């Protein structure tokens, strides 16, 4: 596995706890969350696409391929991962990295460590360990073999919605990062979270 592996940024959600709209376009200082995610991701991977639903023109300034869910009714991040798998397979790639658009501080060694921890199926998920030693999984950050895409398509059609639930059926590896001084997978769901992210960025 090398730095040419493609990646998909998951931005297909409805952001209901933020009052709707695109979390990816919220700002921390002079940058959007999407700017920050791209700055962290691009040095680690090959081509990058964005999973987003609705009018793609609102992301036109980023010059990214925009991948809408291929499964109806916005079933969640798994549909975005499937869109990324299908796109990556079309590029001839054997796997794709997924990251969440609302998580601006994810690790700069994400791709390398996921690749190093890939399980027997080639799948790996990210996790973090807090100061008390408790480990939390962050399955929207993963390495997904494109060979699993037909299985994922079938699972979505059968009603599977949990990213971790699908992943656990395929014996994933796990890469664990320290959550000190803050969890690098801290994500922005509410206005209070956005203020905390601004404080982290400033500090």
From TrEMBL:
Q: What class of enzyme is it?
A: transferase
Q: Where is the chain membrane-spanning?
A: none
Q: Catalytic activity, per the record?
A: Mo-molybdopterin + GTP + H(+) = Mo-molybdopterin guanine dinucleotide + diphosphate
In terms of InterPro entries, this protein maps to: MobA-like_NTP_Trfase, Molybde_CF_guanTrfase, Nucleotide-diphossugar_trans
Alphabetic keyword roster: Cytoplasm, GTP-binding, Magnesium, Metal-binding, Molybdenum cofactor biosynthesis, Nucleotide-binding, Nucleotidyltransferase, Transferase
- What CDD domains does the record tag this protein with? MobA
Q: Which residues bind Mg(2+)?
A: 102
EC number assigned by the record? 2.7.7.77
Tell where it localizes.
Answer: Cytoplasm
Q: Which cofactor does it need?
A: Mg(2+)
MF terms per GO, please?
nucleotidyltransferase activity
Which positions in this protein are listed as binding GTP? Answer: 10-12, 23, 51, 69, 102
User: Which Pfam families does the UniProt entry name for this protein?
Assistant: NTP_transf_3
Q: Does the keyword Metal-binding apply?
A: yes
Domain spans labelled MobA-like NTP transferase:
7-163
Q: What does this protein do?
A: Transfers a GMP moiety from GTP to Mo-molybdopterin (Mo-MPT) cofactor (Moco or molybdenum cofactor) to form Mo-molybdopterin guanine dinucleotide (Mo-MGD) cofactor.
Assembly information from the UniProt record: Monomer.
Q: Which family does it belong to?
A: Belongs to the MobA family.
Could you tell me which HAMAP family the record lists for this protein?
MobA
Q: How does the record comment on the protein's domains?
A: The N-terminal domain determines nucleotide recognition and specific binding, while the C-terminal domain determines the specific binding to the target protein.
Q: What is this protein called?
A: Molybdenum cofactor guanylyltransferase
Q: Name the species this protein comes from.
A: Paracoccus stylophorae
């Amino acid at each position: 596995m090398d730095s040419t592996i493609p990646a998909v940024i998951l931005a297909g959600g409805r952001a209901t706890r933020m009052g709707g709209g695109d979390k990816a376009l919220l700002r921390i200082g002079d940058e959007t969350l999407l700017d920050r995610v791209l700055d962290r991701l691009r040095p680690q991977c090959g081509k990058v696409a964005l999973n987003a639903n609705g009018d793609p023109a609102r992301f036109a300034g980023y010059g990214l391929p925009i991948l809408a869910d291929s499964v109806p009714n916005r079933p969640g991040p798994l549909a975005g991962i499937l869109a990324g798998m299908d796109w990556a397979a079309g590029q001839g790639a054997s796997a794709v990295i997924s990251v969440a658009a609302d998580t601006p501080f994810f690790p700069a060694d994400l791709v390398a460590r996921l690749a190093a921890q890939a399980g027997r199926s080639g799948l790996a998920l990210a996790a973090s360990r807090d100061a008390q030693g408790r480990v939390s999984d962050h399955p929207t950050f993963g390495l997904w073999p494109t060979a699993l895409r037909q299985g994922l398509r079938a699972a979505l059609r059968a009603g599977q919605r949990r990213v971790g639930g699908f992943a656990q059926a395929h014996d994933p590896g796990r890469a664990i990062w320290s959550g000190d001084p803050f969890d690098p997978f801290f994500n922005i769901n509410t206005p209070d979270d956005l203020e905390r992210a601004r404080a982290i960025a400033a500090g």
